[in-house]
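Blinded run. Sample ID left blank on purpose so nobody reads anything into the name before looking at the predicted structure. Input follows.
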Amino acid sequence: MASYAPTEVQVDACIKKIVETTDRSRKWVRRTSILDDLLPNGRVPVGLDVRLRLKACTMHIKALAESFGAEQSADFLGVGITMFEGLVSERVITPITTKAFKKPRFSANMLDDLLNRMKARAILQPDHAIRKDMISLSHASFALRCPAGQIQRFLEAGELPGSYIDTTEIGLAGLRISHKELLAAIRRQQRADLTLEEVRKRLAPSSR
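Blinded prediction complete.
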């Protein structure tokens, strides 16, 4: 059976390691751990979940230490702050749950993952024919009144096959989308989202 050091020793060692790897003060690490209920009431965890709790604590503090604010996150993605806030409201991007900061913080890994997923669907292949109706993400969102989050879902669903990334621009600023493909995807969604009442009005069936 494995033998572990006393809980207090494990906690102290864990906090010391976090301090060293995140370049944050010991006071900040401990305070954040307490605020975010990883070390409830400032006391050491009890029971058999000590190591799991400390592992979660390490991951959480590291994510916070590497996180971005809203404006920095928008710059990282290559979008304006308004579009970024739209992605947040659509839950495409979710802030880190924490009480240690007054303003929302966003995981660098999550932002990077979003960029990679978008790029995976919009890689410019050697035989990729660039269409004449290509527009930027911001233009597409504004011109067709389609939220950026919905465009992202269309892209990941493979409904915008003509999309590509202009690598001379930063992040999503380089995304180019076919106006025609996006309009067609929006129309397909609208048809799929018809309510029973709308169907009745369009088809004018009997009451039965």
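Unblinding after everyone has recorded impressions. The CA atoms of residues 5 and 122 lie 51 Å apart.
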